[in-house]
Fold this protein.
Amino acid sequence: MAKLQTIIFDVEHGFCGYLQCPNGYSLMVDCGGRSDFSPAKYLKSNTNYYFPIKHDYYHLTKLLITHPHGDHVEDVENLLNELPPAILTRTYLSDFSPEDMQQRKREKDDENLKIYREKLDQKYTSFVTNFPNWGITKNYFSLTPREAKQVDKNKILNNTSKVLLVEFAGRKILFTGDLETAGWDALITKNPNNFVEKIKGIDVFVVPHHGHKSAFSQNLFNIMGKPHINIISKESEEKETSDVGSVDSRYSHQDYSQGITFDDNSLRRSLTTRSDGSIFIDIDDSSNLNIRLLDLGSNISL
């Protein structure tokens, strides 16, 4: 039975998602990691299960970088050592001004982004001519840095996040990067037909900006409807007094999620890597949706 296999890894505050397509091609969405866990090392150690086919001699077919923030490329060095991609999709760093790149400056971000810039962004510059037959439908949507600056000059990087819509067997998964509320409104306005029509009926919503209130979009939910489940990549519980740092409780409300019943008969409307660990999502060619929660432990010695 053909199926689409998806993993949302527990990488604390960052993000790393992985898809293995029904015909074996693979796609990683961002390459976040933890100090004690590398998604790239985990996938490399499961080659018999995860990489049945190569593309241009590479095990990992494509890496999508939604936007250039350090927590979304934290595992970049392990990725390059273990699973360099055949194809890289991103907004080029050269499209951002130096001022844009200083919006969130941390020493660790600088180190990760330097490796990303030199060994991925500046290296993968050739046009792709050999495209894999994914066996799924993929669509990308995003604002340019110039468009994002017009929306909010203080949130340019977040609002250039590349949104990925994946469809298989009548099911839809939406990956959203760190797109903010105003960014969603601009994206909807920019693509009133193409984007709006395609995102109706989302089944699995990987929520934007780690569930922060600053990224919740009522207009988006009005279009896509209630997903079966909302998935949040988040490190730890934060004070609910902050509109920026806290997880928006609406993602767990019945108005914003249909919910999924698990084997213990519990109905869950949202899942978070903070408390649920890594989240495995399987969709088979009969449109069955199965979700498993696993603690993958550590694979890096501290």
Q: What stands out?
A: The chain has a mean pLDDT of 91. Residues 3-294 form a domain with the Metallo-beta-lactamase; Chain A fold (CATH 3.60.15.10). Residues 22 and 135 are 6 Å apart (CA to CA).
